[in-house]
Amino acid sequence: MKNQLKAMFTKAEFYMLTQYKVGKIYDMMMGETLQVYMYWCNMVWNRLSIPRRRFISWLVVQHRSQTTEKLARIGVSSSLACVICDQGDEIHKHLFSECPYIKISLLETKSWFGITVATQSLNRLIVWIDRSKKSKFRKNVWHANIYAFVYSVWRCKNDSYWQDLITRPHFLTDNCKRVVKERIRVVLPTIMAR
Questions:
Q1: In the chain, what are the domain boundaries?
Q2: How far apart are CA 87 and CA 81, in angstroms?
Q3: Is 105 exposed, middle or buried (0-12, 13-18, 19+ CB in 10 A)?
Q4: What is the pLDDT of residues 66-105, one digit of tens each?
């Protein structure tokens, strides 16, 4: 912990702090990860999402899904390269916000749902959805869309790694649309009956 604090501040910067508060320093050290944990419960209890998509999204937000970087560390993969675009190391940040292939699909998905935030970061997108002044139903639909998108990326990555198949970005978007529409049709009559 001490070394992390030294890496964040020089002695001069540390002494210039007007007040030292442990909570404030902890928030600075955690960055956006802490914010996502605070908003995660809103995504988990969303009835419009299919449980397997919730689970995969939970792994992704927690940075616990198996990327090729993690697989290489344990000896399963021989390469760190992204199996989808082959333009960078496959870490969570690359796979869900920097991969050019995934960026295209995310932009199409966001525009279809009318999500206007400019961020490409999955974590910031989750926080933006929860902070938006939209109805609970619309937020749940957006969360279901994020689940469908993350699950589609996960499936695309696995298909690329295990079967050497790469799905078109437009197919990912179309799949998200189809899944969310079907789930709303299944769940909505139950919600309306209450």
A1: 31-193
A2: 7
A3: buried
A4: 888 888 888 888 888 888 888 888 888 888 888 888 888 8
